[in-house]
Amino acid sequence: MKKKNMMALAVAAALGLGVLPPAADAVSTRDIEQKRGEIDALRSKRSEVQEKISEAQKNIEALQSQQKQVANDIEKLNMAIEETSGKIRNVSADIDQTEHAIDQLKQEIAEIQERIEKRNDILKERLRSLQESGGAISYLQVLLGAQSFSDFIDRMSAVTTIMEADQQIIREQEADKALKEKKEAELTEKRNKLQEDLQELKQLQAELAGQLEQKNRLMADLKQKEEEEHDHKMALEEEKELIAKQEAAVKEQLAELERQKRAEEEAKQRAHTYTSFDNGDASSGEMPSGGSMPPVSSGAFTRPANGPITSGFGYRFGGTDFHPGVDIGKRAPVVPVVAAADGIVFRSYYSSSYGNVIFISHVINGQTYTTVYAHLEARLVGEGQHVRKGQMIGYMGNTGNSTGPHLHFELHRGGWNEAKTNAVNPLDYIPF
After folding, report:
1. Considering only CA atoms, which of 321, 317, 386, 315 is closest in space to residue 348?
2. Which residues fall in a compositionally biased region of kind Basic and acidic residues (predicted)?
3. Which of 77, 79, 130, 379 has its CB 3.0 to 4.6 Å from that of 212, i.e. a possible disulfide?
4. What is the C-alpha separation between 360 and 389, in angstroms, rounded?
């Protein structure tokens, strides 16, 4: 085997082809077309996500416009409430003045009532005098008792004066009664009108306060929706960037396939057979901290880290939560994480949910796979970097939305998407 590899090296050096990537089968035109189709699909998906981002931005602008209108409405309501409160103060002051006037009127009415009572006493006395003297006959007796014509005239004038005085008392009595009733009616009517105005203003104030409360609730709801729309837009932008990285990785894979295809064609023209050779995978051994590299197994994939499966693939918690991968528990102070297969790192960054995360794109027998390594303590590879099966890419950690130290590992048959519709059970592909 060693001699065969040496021969391959010699031929490759002679032809100046360099080291070819390992491949289980020859690259076919179908593989290349399929890869181009994946690029087109990713480009289309990225365009769709961009449209969603634009739509989210329009929604944000619409919500901000609504908030501006609601803010104007709130300002107008506050001004109306302030104006109504001023009117309430004025009407309340008028009511106080009217109550004061009513108190004064009560004093005047008391004085009028006193005059009325005094007149009533006078009239009663006059009536009693008339009854005792025989009423109108006494006036006649007075006149008939005149000793002379001149005395008759004097007596007539005196009787007329007494009668007019009696009539004046009656007139004044009636006038005071009418005045009393008029003032009472006027002030009562004014007070009732002011009370009605006050009630209407208080009702208006309550209605305005209710409208203001509704507008404040609406404003809070609009702000909440805007915040949710911003979060949605950020998620879409992150997805767009992730798709763009996937597209770049697939393009690089396509270029690699095309280079491999050309190399195969050149090899056929020279009637030589070239054999892939191993560049030296990372060996499995003990780490200085006590963690160990997982052994590289045969087949397309190898397990990404040592440790027990603490959470499997599928629905959890009574069918309410879909877990798109498996969790591998941490059982050493430092646990290395390795690439599950040969591939290209198309995303290596910190995510609010995944924490330190690495996305790797693989092409195995013409089929694209994507693996995800989340919640890492540290990342050792960067975007665009080629990795080999079993190569260490990071350390198990507890970053992002994680409840304890572990590796969250996902395997997707195809590209990664936010809905994770391509996720498959890693246990069906990897010997754990």
Report:
1. 386
2. 260-269
3. 77
4. 11
Tens digit of each residue's pLDDT, the chain (432 residues): 333 333 333 333 333 333 333 444 567 777 777 778 888 888 888 888 888 889 889 889 998 888 888 898 888 888 888 888 888 888 788 778 877 877 777 787 777 777 767 766 765 666 566 555 554 445 555 556 666 666 667 656 665 666 666 677 777 767 777 877 787 787 788 778 888 887 888 888 888 888 888 889 888 988 898 889 888 888 888 888 888 888 888 888 888 887 777 766 666 665 433 333 333 343 344 443 346 889 999 999 999 999 999 999 999 877 788 999 999 999 998 999 999 999 999 999 999 899 999 999 999 988 999 999 999 998 999 999 999 999 999 999 999 999 899 999 999 999 999 889 999 999 999 988
Secondary-structure class of domain 36-267 per CATH: mainly alpha
Listed in sequence order, the residues at least 6 apart from 137 whose beta carbon sits closer than 8 Å to its beta carbon are: none
Q: What is d(CA 284, CA 290) in angstroms, rounded to the nearest whole number?
A: 13
As beta bridge partners, residue 376 has: 356, 396
Residue spans per domain, the chain:
36-267, 297-431
State the residue for tokens 């300002």.
Answer: 75
Count of alpha carbons within 13 angstroms of residue 178, beta-carbon side: 6
- What secondary structure does DSSP assign to 44-102, as a single string? HHHHHHHHHHHHHHHHHHHHHHHHHHHHHHHHHHHHHHHHHHHHHHHHHHHHHHHHHHH
- In the three-class reduction of DSSP (H, G, I as helix; E, B as strand; rest coil), residue 32 is classed as helix
DSSP state of 319: T
CATH fold match for the domains 36-267 and 297-431? no
CA distance 304 to 285: 14
pTM of this prediction? 0.45
Decide if domain 297-431 falls under CATH 3.10.150.10.
Answer: no
Query: What is the torsional sign of CA 375, 376, 378, 383?
Result: negative
